[in-house]
Amino acid sequence: MDLKVNTHRHRSWAEPWRVKMVELLKMTTYEERKKALVEAGYNTFLLRSRDVYIDLLTDSGTSAMSDRQWAGMMLGDEAYAGSENFYHLEEAVKKYYGYKYLVPTHQGRGAEHIISKLLIKQGDHVPGNMYFTTTRLHQELAGGTFHDIIIDEAHDPENEHPFKGNVDLNKLDALVKEYGAHRIPYVSIATTVNMAGGQPISLANLRELREYTRKHGILIIHDMTRVAENAWFIKQREEGYAGKSVAEIVREICDLTDGATMSAKKDALVNIGGFLALNDPDLFDRARNMVVVYEGLHTYGGMAGRDMEAMAIGIGESVHDDHIRARVGQVEYLGNRLLAHDIPIVKPVGSHGVFIDAKKFLPTVSQDKFPAQALAAAIYLDSGIRTMERGIVSAGRNKKTGDHNYPKLELVRLTIPRRVYTQAHMDVVVESILEVYDQRSRIKGLKMVYEPKYLRFFQARFDSLS
Length: 466
Fold this sequence. Notes:
Helices cover 39% and strands 13% of the residues. By secondary structure, it is of the alpha/beta class. It has two domains: 30-59 and 321-464, Aspartate Aminotransferase, domain 1, CATH 3.90.1150; 67-318, 3-Layer(aba) Sandwich (Aspartate Aminotransferase, domain 2). Strands 2-8-7-6-5 form a five-stranded mixed beta sheet, sandwiched between helices. Strand 3, helix 5 and strand 4 (145-148) form a beta-alpha-beta unit. Helix 4 (108-119) crosses helix 10 and helix 14 (371-383) packs across helix 16. The longest helix is centred in the C-terminal third of the chain and has 20 residues, at 321-340. 48% of the residues are buried.
């Protein structure tokens, strides 16, 4: 029997996997949540996971591994030197990303630390398409100053530019003219910019950047944590790429850069691990020497052999079109449901999470009262759903004046782990946010009562002003 396929009719999609094992979740009472929140100092990072119902704090290391990855864990070669799993990982990095040399690290910030110490000298300047917290701190600790060269549209939650991760080449050129190319060791480029709401960079923009940096002798170091998700947006939005696979686009992105830091806890679908990938043999030799000092031997870099095997398999799974379609599709489902109820979020919906615009959600709470932190606390109090702040707390303080940095974006991130939650969980999230929105006038903000020296969003504590 032959059937004619109707290509014009809308067809629903489903996750390209089925469930083999479940982890039971704990349902808490309002009183239990309030007690837990006070003990955590109104910081969702300080909540115990046992007190969380749906955990949208981060997609880092929280995804579900496949049966093939779990099987690979049983093949761990735990030899101190020359683990066979390292060579499997090296092969996967070369095959899917194209970088020539691999330096494994315990996670992405280990790679950030090494590349910063290798390339940045005191007084250098590092441009990038919006800061990321750990990346900027490593650059500063190495003596550099970060400069945001992302397009202006990225700082406007309402703007629907399809590639808000793009670099403004005029901003970069102004830095080169002011400081000289010799004081700019590299441009730090993230694919799907986290702090902008998971927004992608286009290949057209990256090619223009490559041409400019080659002319001035400046490297491009790629934060490729979510490169496959960026490739999906290029496939959907950039002219000429609809017929290409995600794997092909990922390779094209990487080929336009000189090296990369990778937190494999995101795209590569593992619970721990990362790497530094390079093309220059001399830089690789220096990095391989440094990893022995700070991470572990150059063939394990802080990871067990079984973790490297799971990562090698996960890299291959991460570039499957069906996987990325479902992964980004679930994020878009949540975002579109919130938009349907007029909840202010960053538009267009990003790749790894939905970002609520806390300034518009809580217009009466001034930024120095930490509206995004207060909103994340309120969502947890309502339903046990854990989200996280990406605003003034994450932005930290000006290293010269000591004053708060006041970012234009004050966001609450609803981060979706890969292959973990169902659409029903997303519906529960929507219902909780709608309930908090109806009672938003009761939220008065927070005051900070403890602030650590570095990366304060992880450990800061607050009191309620309500």
